[in-house]
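Encode chain A's predicted structure.
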Amino acid sequence: MLRANRRRLALIAVLVVALVLPFIPPFTGEDYRRWLVGAAFMAAQAVAFDFTAGYINIVNFGFAAFVGLGGYTSGLLAVELGIPPVIGMVVGGAVSGFVGLALMGIVRNLPEITRGSLGLAVPSLLDSPENLPYYYVILAMLVVTFGVLAWVIRSRFGLAFRAIGQNLAAARASGINPTRYLVINFVLSCAFAGWLGGFYAHYYGILTPDVMLTSHTVEILAIAYIGGRGSLWGAAVIAFPLSIGVEYAKVQFSTLPGVHLVLYGLLLIVVMIYRPGGVAAAVRSFDDWIGRRGRPVPAEKPGRA
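Encoded structure for chain A:
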């Protein structure tokens, strides 16, 4: 109980820091606040990705495609039908939750609808040129994504997910229907991916098929594994310093395209070798150490005379 309380307090402290960070230099500048928006966006995606990779042990390499599908769904609804972005984002999430197609080929080959590589211009989510309102919107979306998926993991569904991820045959033998729970997990993960993709569309205001590139999935995978697969919170927390650090590296090494993927790869290799459980495992080890130091040392029993 004490350990759980410490972790809840730690997560609350992290959320408070995230809330006040835009008012702490250098994040008072618009460029840095844009980095914060990107970091929160990556964090929310990593949580949704870890929900599948960390619990049912399936790596969804098409994750970016579902983000793109949600973005295009919301964008097209706004452009063609005038549906408000807030509603379009929800519809985009619903569509992504039930569609699993080769979207990259569809988007590139239907330019009369999606405009292909020319890009689809979509209306902004908010009537503001500043990044701060968008940051709090995506931060709220991150909290909702984490809260809902963490609640599912603590339910009986979470027990089934863990059983399937650890040993599919044993889970089936114990009476669990793997197909049912695999579908539930995958649909939820993709639905949140689509919802977040809707935010992407209405924040950047332009969509191209590049949003669906596998390299974007690789970035999310790296964050989830570095943060700690099967923790949810590890990916959410580590995404902020990692994403901001990567953006800084892009600026400093602007003549080296793809340097951010190299950095992600190197960090992933280091974590896999020295701390396979990621940051979450390191925090758990530290928490266990704190717990052991806090226990009273039992008094020695007097021996017989």
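The chain is about 70% helix and 0% strand.
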